[in-house]
Request: fold
Amino acid sequence: MATTLAEIRAKLQAQENRQGGNSTGDNAIFAHWNIPEGSTSRIRFLPDANTKNSFFWVERAMIKLPFAGIKGQADSKPVVVQVPCIEMWEPNACPILAEVRTWFKDASLEEMGRKYWKKKSYLFQGFVRESTLGDDKVPENPIRRFVISPQIFNIVKAALMDPEMEELPTDLERGLDFLITKTSKGGYADYSTSKYARKESALTEVERAAIEQYGLYDLQDFLPKRPNDVELKVMKEMFEASVDGQAYDPDKWGAYYKPAGFTSGGNAASVSTSSDEDAPVAKPVSQAAPARSAPFNTDEDDAPPAAATPVAAPKPAGGQRAEDILAMIRNRQKQ
Reply:
C-alpha cells in the first residue's frame, strides 16, 4: 500500500505514462447523484483496508448490453444487462472489447462502438460529513461507500498531483474533505466544480470510534468476480444477441447475468452483476426546470479515437448495420 503522497503521485504518473479503472444491501452507498442542483455535500475519503492496494479507491469497469426486451414476456420493455469487463484483471483480454475496438476503424460504426464500450467507475469509502441529500438513510455503520464517476475521479486525481497538496487527503489528522457540488450543463447533472477543501481537518472522536468498531472496507470485495470460461462464453453470446437486437433470454442466461431487479420463475440461480454499486439514473436536478436524466457514467473513458477517414457512403439502417457486424464477428470466429 502506498503510504505517502509521493508514492501515490508516482503510481498515478506511471499509469498516465502507460496509457499515453458485491452488494450487501446495507445502504452503505451514498447516492450523491441525487443531491439537489446547486448544493454541495462534504465527504471524507478513507484508506482501503487492503494493504496491497496502492490507492484509496478501486476501479470498476462494466459493459452494458441492451436488449429489446425479455423473451417470453408480453409487452416487455427494453432492458440492460451489465457484465464485467475482463480488463479489470488483465489488459487487452476482454473478448467483447477485442471485437468492439475494430469498429472504431470505421466511422459508420463508431457510435455503435461507444455504445458497447466499457464504462468505468471508482469505488471509495469514507464519511459523509455534511449531506444535502434529503432522503439519505444513514446506516448504523457510518463508513459509507462512494461510486465515483470518471468526471469526479479526474478532479480527485488532479488534486493528488498538485504539488501544493502536502499530505494524503485520507490522513486521519491532516486530511482534507472533498466537496461534491452538483450543477447542470446542457440539461444534465454536472460535477466539474467539485473540489477538495482548502483547510485540513482531523477526524472527530466519533469518526475514529466508528473505524475502531466497524473497521474499513476491503474495496476489492465490492468488485464483481472474474468470469470463468463458461461465463465468458455466455457473455460473448449475450453480446452478439444484443447487437442483433434480440430479447434477453432468461432460460439461456438467467443463471449467469440478468437485468437489475429481474427475477425468474424458473430454476435459474439468483446470480446477477447488478448491485447497490450500480448508480441509478440520476433524478432531475430541478423541479422548476427539470434537467434530462442521464446515466451515471456518461464518460467514454479510454475508448479508441474516431476513425481518421470518414466513410463517404451513407450509413446503413440500424438492422442492416447489426447484421454486418454480426457477420464480421462470426467470420472472425471461423478463422
Q: What stands out?
A: The longest helix spans residues 318-334.
